[in-house]
Amino acid sequence: MTKVDVCNIALGRIGRKAAITSLTENSTEARACNRIWDMVRQSLLREFTWSFSHRVELLAQSTDTVPGWQYLYAYPSDCLQALRVFNEVTAELRGEQAKWDVLTVGNNTFIACNVELAYLEYTADRTDPDSWTTQFSDCLAWRLAFELAMPLTGDQNLRNSCWQLYMNIGSMARTTNAAEKNVEAFKERRYLDARK
Fold first, then answer.
1. Can you give the residue ranges of every domain in the chain?
2. Which residues contact 115 (CB under 8 A, 6 or more apart)?
3. The pLDDT of residue 62
4. For residue 96, what pLDDT band results from cuts at 50, 70 and 90?
5. How far apart are the C-alpha atoms of 102 and 109, rounded to whole Å?
6. 42-80 core/surface letters (b: 16 or more CB in 10 A; e: else)
7. How do residues 144-191 score in pLDDT, each as one tens digit?
8. Helical H runs in the chain?
């Protein structure tokens, strides 16, 4: 599936019969899609930790310093949302996170923390539709339909319907995505081990 495919699905959902062939073509539909594409895609990626955009990376330590923090690490260029900072010692302590913050010093963004040799768990900005799940693409098409409904049709009822369908499809997609991990079982095991 391509960007154009997702946009054409969204356009079809609001009753636009003409399909686009490119986001840069000279049509009202293409200009509308192109204007909101990145904003809507990134917003949807940030709403939930999708498995295909969930990354862990060893952070690059900076020589810069900020009072109150032992370490500054470079913010990954593809990071949309920082989720957790940890190291090899604290990796399993999901419920007991170290303190950290995202700071801008000069023109650079950093992860500030007191964790040596830190890793960052984060949501990556995945732009390639081939890397997305079909459910994410479906959610994205409904979210685009919601955003496009008013500018292209002026129909508030259609816009509201698109939002409701986006929420329903999104809920199912998140449930399916969440089934691909087993973090809670680990927490329960730690609790039971501690009681022995």
1. 3-49+132-182, 51-124
2. 71, 85, 86, 87, 90, 98, 100
3. 95
4. low
5. 7
6. bebbeebbbeebbbeeebeebeeeeeebebbbbbbeebb
7. 999 999 999 999 999 999 999 999 999 998 888 777 766 554 444 444
8. 3-13, 28-47, 134-153, 156-178, 183-195
**Contacts (Cβ under 8 Å, ≥6 apart) of 14:** 145, 148, 149, 152, 153, 155, 158, 162
Q: Are 56 and 183 in contact (CB under 8 A)?
A: no
Closest to 81 measured CA to CA, from 108, 106, 107, 53: 53
Distance CA 176, CA 178 (A): 6
* Angstrom distance (rounded) from CA 30 to CA 20: 6
Which of 52-61, 114-123, 182-191 has the lowest average pLDDT?
Answer: 182-191
As a whole number of angstroms, the longest Cα–Cα distance in the chain is 69
